[in-house]
Amino acid sequence: MDIYFRPHHFVCAFCFQGAxxxxxxxxxxxxxxxxxxxxxxxxxxxxxTMMEDSICAYCPRCLDCRExxxxxxxxxxxxxxxxxxxKTGDEISWDEAKxxxxxxVDLVIFQNICSACQWYExxxxxxxxxx
Length: 131
Ligand code: SF4
Ligand code: SF4
Description:
By secondary structure, the chain is mainly alpha-helical. The protein is about 55% helix and about 5% strand. It has a 3-stranded mixed β-sheet.
């Protein structure tokens, strides 16, 4: 399976605990995470894109997102692409992505960038543990 992530979805995947917008969305997300976690030492590769990706592919909000929320999504992508040094065309392992997130994202940064998201309280746990 070729996996494509837009920058902020690396963090969403890091925090994923089974919540999502629909059954199809969650099933797809779980498949992706199984693939990423299946190989020894998390060597599965992820392609970086600034567009709709493997997670967006099953999102029921895709059209709304494109038309209404594009500014907030673009803001998330731009911030995390800069912080995690991710650019279109890069291919990085899940292991490397997780290392960058653990190293670069703390609770203060996460709060500043992600607090408007509906999943914030769920995701926050991952960064609270680091404090
Ligand atoms: S709070 Fe939202 S945007 Fe931020 S990591 Fe969680 S699901 Fe993704
Ligand atoms: S809300 Fe937008 S960025 Fe998030 S998964 Fe759906 S289409 Fe992708």
